[in-house]
Amino acid sequence: MQLVAEADAKTIELNAQMKSRLADERDPIEPVIKLDHIHKIYKMGDIEVHALRGITLTIRQGEFVAVMGVSGSGKSTMMNIIGCLDQPTRGTYILDGQNVSKLSKDDRADIRNHKIGFVFQGFNLLARTSAIENVELPMLYAGIETAERKRRAREALEAVGLAGRENSHPNQLSGGQQQRVAIARALVNHPTIILADEPTGALDSRTSVEVMEIFQRLSRERGITLLVVTHEHDIAEYARRVIIFRDGKIKSDEPAPHQRDAAEELKTLPMLDDDDDD
Amino acid sequence: MNIFVIFRIAFRALARNKMRSALTMLGIVIGVAAVIAMVSIGQGAQASVQAQIASVGTNLLFVGAGSQNVGGVRSGTGATSSNTLTVEDIEAIRREIPSVAMASPTVNARSQIVFGNQNWNTSVQGVNEQFPQIRKWVVQSGEFFTEADVRTAARVVVLGQTVAESLFPGADPVGQMVRVRELPFRVIGVMTRRGQDAQGRDQDDNALAPFTTIQKKLLAITHIQFAHVSAISPGATYTAQEQITELLRQRHKLAPNQENDFFVRNLTDVAEAADETNRIMTYLLGSIAGVSLLVGGIGIMNIMLVSVTERTREIGIRMAIGARSSAVRTQFLIESIVLSLTGGAIGIMVGIAISLLIPVMLGWPTLISFIAIVGSVIFSAAVGIFFGYYPARKAAGLDPIDALRYE
Fold first, then answer.
1. The complex's ipTM?
2. CATH architecture of A29-268
3. Is pTM, for the whole model, over 0.90?
């Protein structure tokens, strides 16, 4: 009798968990990013530059995608459009079920604030500002109250392994640490997608693997959709899907043949002398 | 987007670069401090003049022979060519005009006063015994002459402090004999110290004797040059002025189309003339200082523009993270206003400090003007808004993609 009761209780608990998880999670059937015949044309004086020539692309929630291509291939333009920093000239972009193709500047700013996290090659932290204040920045624009802001910021810094460095300024942090602060900042408003533009471009090899480990962990544990732009094949191999751009079109879109496990690799990689946070 | 949050963002941004913020504010600080100091000097001068006049007695009228200077600020120690004003005129004024309380005929004789081997050239005024009450100016030691002295044209003299100190350094002049234009006079008193008058002349450089004595023994004249008259109250001065004029015109048998051969000056006119001069000076000083405030505002605009350019990347980051254009614009506008208001506040404190130091260091009177302070606050805010608007708009108009790429 008791066992049955226990089993029942467990089932109820499990059901509740599943229900809440389903409520939190977006519908896995509906893609997070849906691009349909996207064109982008720039006018430079008399000349028209056709940067994107009809991109159709679907990305589902939780995917870890690497975007590659030479300069001029259109990958940066594509990322700007996906990140709502720019608008397509033609075509539709549906982000998380919402058509964001023709939104106003202010609306796009709001979308960026709530749904998108950016990580840049140059970290782009505010100088002379502490790590925790940097991480809090998106929440300031979202109107989050002080106590909640501090809590979430600390949580985010912990998630990237910088729990003790809240009050350090960027000039007191190594490149890898600064990038981690940037990642924490990107996480803090619980975005739908994170866009990383050459996130390891300014980092040494070991730190690059550390950053990829964080990305992989976030993708696994939090189900965040990640798009990483890179020109390094090594880095692309940490993703699960690789899209290659060329001349404004998608040349190839394949699952990664062999996804590397950054966490495993870290265990065997040698430590570098100037890495001072371990 | 909560305005308080943007305030906080703006404050943090300014605090991040304290040196630059301080230098930007410097123009406003200097401008405001200059305005406050200048205006307080001007107002100090005005108040000092008004105090002077109040101490002299605001019910004082000055009658003189000859025609008045237009808009005259000269208080009439100049020679007058007319001899139509008589002692009897003054008697009549005192007797017949109800709004007049007292009157003293007055003559002036510039004379050399000698004591032993000291001499001093000064203005010797002939007045009557009512003079101290009319001018509210009494003796400090000894006594003033009496009606009897006036009647008998006694050779007595009361010295002003400056004359007393020059002829009798360290000694008491009372009871001593001096020579005025070679004639022996007995010093019977010394006046209290008065200081400078509204025109900056030393009122203590003066000697007083019965007017009859001066008329007969020094000048050999029978007319008088001036008269000090006091009205029964400050409010009665204009009535008194009218009535004296009417009486004198009658007595001098002036036809309706003839001008007065005398003048009656109400001290209020003198006060207002001096006041007007000071007011103009205050405005002038204030305007010059205001120009420097304007320059300070231009300084703010320049620094804000440079700041926008330097912070292009930062603006791009903020926009990428989700700041609306309006949030960026408001942030920079608030930064500009905070800079100018803080500069204004510091300028006010510096201006007040200078205003308090000047009397100590230069001896000029100052009076801190509340209006100047309020005006400076408003002006600082206006400068911040006006000169900050263009840079703020520029910041808000940046394209995030370009801004992020900016080196």
1. 0.85
2. 3-Layer(aba) Sandwich (3.40)
3. no
